[in-house]
Design a protein that fits this description.
Layout: E1 12-15, E2 21-26, H1 32-40, H2 44-51, H3 60-67, E3 74-81, E4 84-94, E5 108-115, H4 124-138, E6 143-148, H5 153-160, E7 165-171, E8 174-180, H6 185-207, E9 211-215, H7 224-234, E10 240-244, E11 253-255, E12 258-261, H8 264-269, E13 276-279, H9 286-295, E14 300-303, H10 313-328, E15 332-334, E16 340-343, E17 350-353, E18 364-368, H11 371-383, E19 388-393, H12 402-411, E20 417-422, H13 428-439, E21 444-448, H14 469-478, E22 482-484, H15 487-499, E23 507-512, H16 515-527, E24 531-532, E25 536-537, H17 544-556, E26 562-567, H18 573-577, H19 610-620, E27 627-631, H20 635-642, E28 657-658, H21 661-682, H22 695-705, E29 715-717, H23 720-728, E30 737-739, H24 743-753, E31 757-760, E32 775-779, H25 782-796, H26 799-802, E33 805-808, E34 814-823, E35 827-834, H27 837-840, E36 845-849, H28 854-863, H29 881-897, E37 901-911, E38 916-918, E39 921-926
Amino acid sequence: MSEQPYPVHWEADVVLRDGGIARIRPIGPEDAGRLVDFYEQVSDESKYYRFFAPYPRLSDRDVHRFTHHDYDDRVGLAATVGGEFIATVRYDRTDEQGRAASGPAGTRAEVAFLVQDAHQGRGVASALLEHIAAVARERGILHFTAEVLPANRKMVKVFTDAGYTQQRSFTDGVVHLDLDLEPTVESVRVMRAREHRAEARSVQRLLRPESVAVVGTGRRPGGLGRTLLRNIAAGGFTGRLYAVNHAFPEGGTDVGGVPGHRSVREIAEGGASVDLAVIAVPAERVPEAVADCGAAAVRGLVVVSAGYSETGPEGRARQRELVRQARAHGMRVIGPNAFGVLNTAPDARLNASLSPDMPRRGRLGLFTQSGSIGIALLSGLHRRGLGPSTFVSAGNRADVSGNDLLQYWQDDPDTDAVLMYLESFGNPRKFTRLARRTAVDKPVVVVKGALHSGAVPAGHEVPVTRIPDSTVSALFRQAGVMRVDTVTELLDAGLFLALQPLPAGDRVAVLGNSESLGLLTYDAALTAGLRPAAPIDLTTAAGPDDFAAALTAALADPGSDAVVVTAIPRVGTDLLTADPSDPSDGSTRPAAADPGDPGDPGDPEAGDDPALAAALRAAAAGADKPVVVVHLALDAMADRLGAPAEGPGAPVGRIPAYRAPDRAVGSLAEAASYAAWRASVAEPGRVPDLDRIDEAGAAEDVRRLLPPGAPAGEGVTLDDADTATLLGRYGIEVRRARPAPDPDTAAEAAAALGYPVALKTTAPHLRHRADLGGVRLDLADEGDLRRAYGELTARLGGPAELRPVVQAMAPRGVDTVVRAGVDPAAGAVLSFGLAGAPSELLGDIAHRLVPATDRDAAELVRSIKSAPMLFGWRGAEPVDTAALEELLLRVSMLADDLPEVVAVDLEPVVVSAHGLSVLGARVRLATPPARTDLGPRALTSY
């Protein structure tokens, strides 16, 4: 038996099926009292199922055995709430015959659970199974065995539903189960489905409470707590509302019509419950408030109080303790330093925020980490006649994050699209996975702040991720996320998504009463990657009927997928032809008219044209193609276009209107790109079966080449021979290069390879630097070779410094670069670009997450800006992109199958008209960073 130190890394907070939180941790000798108390609360039936016999109490020997573990051959885990046990699990290592074993002699273990009856059905056993299985794999245990009574159907279901490969038999009245602990596609799917349901439920408890208490409500008007109480009450909250202040008189009081109490526990003692507590007390008093809420079984907290990580190390420690304390009581936290939350659903109407007004009901889910940005988003939506379904401004987001909200919004029937402002990533790999799953059904639009500083904003205690911004954008595109750069663009996209259908393609009709504005819109559409038709000029004399007829025709045209209408204030033809200095001119000027009159041309000075707005809305109503309006000096009319329909006979269709062409077509282009992505997801790519793949041989190479026990991040760069061997296991052939330490050896190498040859240096400072003269090509004979060798060494240095090599010439083509690397935050990433200036100077590189599908490989080749070089630019012969896509897939498979391969760099890869040649290759091996996305469910802990 090996003695192991207490494994702190096994501790984890998990979200249970009902949205509550439990802490899972190893059991130690100090837990004897907790174990006895726990066992006393378990029913006799549950005890019988665990021990197969009546077992009313634990003996001292039992208690010692169940609390003393070596954390290797014998391990026990407990799920706790409020520091007390609610469930336990343990395993004992055995050999193949089921006898007690130690260390490598035993790769099996017998596992058993016990869950307190009051907590059965919450998914506690399923969560414990995930964690004990991960512990077992870490200790070299490959299989679990379990014996379960047939009547214990709940426990049988825990095992059978876990998704592991298993065998089941029935002998002597007992169900025998054998689980292979290697994660499978099904076990990962089951784990993620449970995570989704649990985290969504935990957010629902925060956004749809039946009762709210504001802790820190002042006795007099004013102050943070009193403001929050007023906002909740004025917003029309449909549940029970309480005010809490320890200075209130005993027996309760009245605070502006809201019952006031000295503590949340006092409310609970009176027979009522509190689902959500909004905490607005000074930071030093928050622990007392959290303890009070935990004792009253509050389900969640919104902590508006400041004074945490944004203030420095002391505040950071205070923030960590806040999360630890809340989770220990089974509560999730929004904040601290939060602006608050909103839910506009009629059956909730929750305004637990610092926003003084309840927004109008909408169908946009909003998440922001910044309170000021949250205010801007709410205000911007209000001005556009829109509102959120739900809104969360999480402040320091110490617990609840954007990932949690994505879990909730995916299935929320009140949310049609998601808008997010993110200043930091806690778990980019999980965000990408969740965003992709959500985007299949609902658009997800994101502004990513702090692009260039690489810093985490004050208060955001998350790992600093140094993913290049171009990689973030590429991963967003792969996940179907619509990425924009500013809050204005975020609101523009939200306006479009809230009011218009997605376009079926990128063909755009442009029409309006200004030729110049139409041409600007046309140019903006081209720049945005759309395919606009020539603008239709209706002239400045066009009236509402002319606009309606043109819009109706454009919507009916099968050659267009969307319509952009441009509008400036109308000018009548009489005004254009009349001579204002001639009193005899017969022109007539319109008299002032009722602006509500549909025939009224409106007031250009007021920026209004109600007749035109009504005509456009009527023409666009019910269309299956999106319509957007670009306007100049018609702000009031723009408000009419987007205003909700009110009253009988009011125009139904709502049209987003923008003050500039680039804003209108930018939103349209993002929507078109998203629609194309969603259509492609309906027919997803696949990872093809390729020949010449020797995964077992490659794995053996890695074991041989990587020093055993190397710390994560440390590794080895393979030499040329080992690189060629490892890549060859995946059908990637590297064109051989022979060392040439002197001219004679170079001549011998060239004779063996066959002329023509290339002579090049491999010194690190000259690698891939043809511009410095370190490469000589098309050397036709020995004379050319010796002459080039002399020139090279005379100009750049001696052979020992240059490390020259001779390589057979490859067919002419386009030089490209293919890379794969492991980012600790994002995972394995496949990258592609053209070698040299396009990728190195201009950053023209495309990225995809590994494993890449055939569709991903095809998109990689075509998504770089310099892609035309591969497809016959300026009359050149197109290259063999099929061979290039196959190479990308082989590199992706290598990186996916062998996590120890942390970097692959193929440069240059010369792609010719028929085939390709890999002329340079480097491979680095290292112990990979831990894969948290394949492990047991756990809330992030910093």
